[in-house]
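Need residues for this backbone.
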């Protein structure tokens, strides 16, 4: 089983390479990342998962366009997505989709997940397995679900904050 990494341990491997989970992008934009995690983000070479980009796009499309901050919100994520180098965008392949489906289904059954939790678990499994295939850890605040996923896919790693 892969070891749980702390941000400070991972920073010792400079330059660190990570795959941020969607919650990291959201907290980064909000200015609410803990300082050690902000340092990790700023000092690391970030690879990006297309599943996270899709989750961010869903959030933007679902936001109220009449809210006073919507344009700034939309522009922030639009600019971010256009600046991702193609060589650092990771996309799940058919094998990963299958394995993620098996993991999400198994966890949905064994953990009695509700329908919305199954979809979230599928996305998290896709992110985790895509990062694992690239040999990279996922940076996330979602320890509970990523721990469950890692138990079924011990070849991957995640950094929890």
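Answer:
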């Amino acid at each position: 089983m892969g070891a749980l990494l702390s941000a400070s341990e991972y920073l010792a491997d400079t330059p660190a390479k990570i795959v941020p989970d969607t919650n990291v992008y959201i907290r980064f934009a909000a200015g609410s990342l803990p300082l050690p995690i902000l340092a990790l983000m700023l000092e690391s070479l970030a690879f990006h998962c297309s599943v996270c980009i899709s989750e961010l796009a869903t959030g933007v499309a679902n936001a109220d366009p009449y809210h006073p901050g919507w344009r700034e919100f939309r522009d922030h994520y639009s600019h971010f997505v256009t600046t991702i180098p193609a060589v650092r965008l990771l996309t799940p392949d058919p094998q990963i989709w299958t394995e993620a489906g098996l993991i999400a289904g198994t966890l949905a059954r064994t953990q009695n997940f509700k329908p919305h939790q199954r979809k979230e678990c599928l996305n998290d499994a896709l992110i985790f397995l895509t990062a694992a295939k690239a040999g990279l850890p996922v940076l996330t605040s979602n320890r509970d679900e990523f721990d469950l996923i890692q138990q079924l896919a011990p070849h991957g790693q995640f950094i929890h904050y």
